[in-house]
Structure to design on (98 residues):
């Protein structure tokens, strides 16, 4: 779900032609992502090792099996769902417009 929102923000920014439009397009999906407290594999690759260095009670194996692997798979699936939908829906109009 989180990468679906991140990918949605990227595609919405492509639709805008000026800087203000791009900011306004990416704001709602990113705000929803943050407000829902979702996991993103790239962010977790920083925060989980930081937690280990600061003394959190989990192992590197648990970090991978309980978080990084499932979150990464979910991020890949979510981004592909958005990518395929937008490719099918807007391929003829988006790329020929410019």
């Amino acid at each position: 779900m989180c990468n679906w929102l991140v990918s949605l923000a990227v595609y919405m920014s492509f639709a805008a032609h000026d800087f203000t439009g791009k900011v306004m397009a990416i704001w709602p999906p990113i705000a929803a992502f943050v407000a829902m407290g979702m996991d993103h594999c790239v962010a977790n690759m920083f925060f989980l090792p930081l937690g280990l260095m600061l003394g959190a009670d989990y192992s590197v194996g648990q970090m991978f099996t309980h978080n990084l692997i499932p979150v990464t798979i979910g991020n890949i699936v979510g981004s592909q769902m958005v990518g395929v939908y937008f490719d099918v829906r807007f391929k003829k109009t988006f790329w020929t417009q410019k």
